[in-house]
Amino acid sequence: MDSKSKIFFVVLGILVFGSVIVSYVRIYVQRDYLIQTQISCDPDEDNCFVSKCNSDEDFTCSKDPAEQTSYYKIIEKKAYNIPLCDPNKTECPELSCAPQEEDCQITLCTPDNADGATCSNDSSSDLSN
Question: CA–CA distance from 39 to each of 50, 66, 94 (Å)?
Answer without folding.
Answer: 12, 19, 7
